[in-house]
Amino acid sequence: MKVDKLIEKRCWRLQRKLSRIKNDAGEASSSDGCGWLGNMEDEPDIPPVKQVVVAICAMEKKSGSKPMKEILTRLEEFEFIRTVIFPEEVILKEPVEKWPLCDCLISFHSKGFPLEKAQAYTDLRKPYIINDLDMQYDLQDRRVVYSTLQREGIELPRFAILDRDSKDPSKRELIEGEDHVEVNGVIFNKPFVEKPVSAEDHNIYIYYPTSAGGGSQRLFRKIGSRSSVYSPESRVRKTGSFIYEDFMPTDGTDVKVYTVGPDYAHAEARKSPALDGKVERDSEGKEVRYPVILSNAEKLIARKVCIAFKQTVCGFDLLRANGKSYVCDVNGFSFVKNSSKYYDDCAKILGNMILRELAPTFHIPWAIPFQLDDPPIVPTTFGKMMELRCVVAVIRHGDRTPKQKMKMEVRHPKFFALFAKYDGYKDGHVKLKKPKQLQEVLDIARGLLAEIEQKRADPETEEKKGKLEQLKSVLEM
Ligand SMILES: Nc1ncnc2c1ncn2[C@@H]1O[C@H](COP(=O)(O)OP(=O)(O)OP(=O)(O)O)[C@@H](O)[C@H]1O
Ligand SMILES: [Mg+2]
Questions:
Q1: b/e string for 126-162 if b means 16 or more Cβ within 10 A?
Q2: Domain locations in the chain?
Q3: Which letter does DSSP use for residue 286 in this model?
Q4: Model-level pTM?
């Protein structure tokens, strides 16, 4: 029986490989849904095994990027997952009916991407969606992003919207002073931030107060080694619609957060473009990143953002200021760059998420693996046991310096005189620590030893000769 199962499994693997070769050679998948590795005509007894086809539908710049390649290579390592990338040509030119089939769709908007076509495709094929497409319209408008954040109770900078396209005059009221603006009755003192309502427009201006020399910092999409430039212009823009918001005083870095589902977030800090606009790069030309550990409150924010915007893979910016963290930007689909740990984690989480969702319906023999926070129970020859993950020990050596003590009973009046001299009778004890005091004890010991030497000592003192010598040598040390 066991051998049968083994052979069966090997056959499946062989079939899968053959099918891949057939597909790669240009044979399109069958029309009943791609990825079926059904019975081959000459081997009618082997049960069909479905592979989950995960498709990437995005602009070539994104689907062909290094992080995407790294993550797809890792996703391919799942036995039951196969990945396909929709070519940009197909996305832009072909009707959605002609787009390849898939079971799971990873699709996201970037400049030039036909989001409405991707939506039409999902309506037609109904694949399992990783990043919601409707919400990707919301992400293109900072006003909608901010109102979503507010609705979810996520902290964000205090803001007001100046909507110059609005027919309602109360929504396009701007009163400008030297050091402030009043937007629809809401006052913002400098420094404040002015952001175009379109999230695709990265021309964000920060206005400085006169006390700091005035003028403004003009941010833009990175061009080589620059991300902003100072301008002596202190007046705000007079065309276009903007969000005005309080400038949050950070330590000069932005915290970039990248979620993969609600329970996972990677974070790193980068120099804020609002500083001098010079991009920090390492010797390889990569932008310098600082490690960040998210607080529990920030992890909760990441979870809320991921869920609120229905984006499994979601990047957003946090500003750590005044002891709190404020979200100032939500970007939607975004992978961390140059982090193998993230690539590994991300592919593992996505692969498990996809199989957890689709394996049961497709009758794929896939067992849910342990989650990170599951107890570490492992099968052993004695049955299932808790796995020892680590031992934490605080260790101290056993050597101890011996106490340097000597006990001696004294009866000689000279000792009693010393006891009385230092007020011993008052408290019933005396502590002699000072060199002068110890010298006095030594003088008594020497005196008594001399008396013994000259046979002038009483018998009681004579008996103490050994102890007196010990006392003398200790004090002479
Ligand atoms: N309220 C604020 N207070 C302080 N700094 C801010 C504030 N809003 C934005 N910034 C700074 O400006 C930068 C750009 O702002 P934001 O992220 O909103 O714009 P963006 O162009 O959409 O960015 P991205 O390139 O991430 O899409 C932030 O990274 C941050 O350094
Ligand atoms: Mg940003």
A1: ebbbbbbbebbebbbebbbbbebbeeeebebbebbbb
A2: 13-131, 138-339, 413-476
A3: P
A4: 0.74
What is residue 271's three-state secondary structure?
strand
Six token digits for residue 148: 């979503």
- Over residues 169-187, the mean pLDDT reads 98
194 lines ligand 1 (CB under 6 A): no
Contacts 24+ apart (CB under 8 A), 71-79: 71/335, 71/343, 71/346, 71/347, 71/350, 72/347, 74/343, 74/344, 74/346, 74/347, 74/348, 74/351, 75/347, 75/350, 75/351, 77/347, 77/351, 78/351, 78/355
CATH superfamily, domain at 138-339: ATP-grasp fold, B domain (3.30.470.20)
Atom index in ligand 1 nearest the CA of residue 245 equals: 1
What are 361-376's pLDDT values in tens digits?
999 988 877 665 667 7
Longest dimension (CA), the chain: 126
List b or e across 246-260, with b for residues whose CB sees 16 or more CB atoms inside 10 angstroms.
bbbebeebbbbbbbb
pLDDT of amino acid 45: 59
Q: How far is the centre of ligand 2, averaged over its atoms, from the C-alpha of 39 (Å)?
A: 51
- Give the mutation target among 193, 200, 203, 276 for probing the ligand 1 site: most ligand atoms within 8 A of CB: 193
Handedness of CA 107, 303, 339, 273 (dihedral sign): positive
Find out whether the beta carbon of 106 lies less than 6 Å from any atom of ligand 1: no
Is 138-339 in the same CATH topology as 13-131?
no
The CA 469 to ligand 2 mean position distance, Å, reads: 83
DSSP per-residue codes, 18-75 = HHHHHHHTT-PPPTTSTTEE--BTTBTTSPPEE-EEEEEES-HHHHTSHHHHHHHHHH
Q: d(Cα 57, Cα 42) in Å, to the nearest integer?
A: 36
Q: Which atom of ligand 1 is the closest one to the Cα of 157?
A: 1
Domain range 13-131, CATH architecture: 3-Layer(aba) Sandwich (3.40)
- Closest CA relative to residue 314, chosen from 297, 300, 302, 327: 302
Measure 317 CA to ligand 2 centroid, in angstroms: 6
Q: Is the CB of 257 under 6 A from ligand 1?
A: no
Q: Is 157 helix (H, G, I), strand (E, B) or coil?
A: coil
Q: Provide the CA 452 distance to its chain's centre, in angstroms.
A: 81
Q: Is ligand 1 within 6 A of the CB of residue 53? A: no
Give the distance (Å) from ligand 1 centre to CA of residue 153: 20
The residue whose two tokens read 């891949």 is 20
For ligand 1, is residue 204 a contact (CB within 6 Å)? yes
Q: Find the 221 Cα to ligand 2 centroid distance in Å.
A: 10
pLDDT tens for 255-297 read 999 999 999 999 999 999 999 999 999 999 999 999 999 999 9
- Alpha carbon distance 75, 103 (integer Å): 14
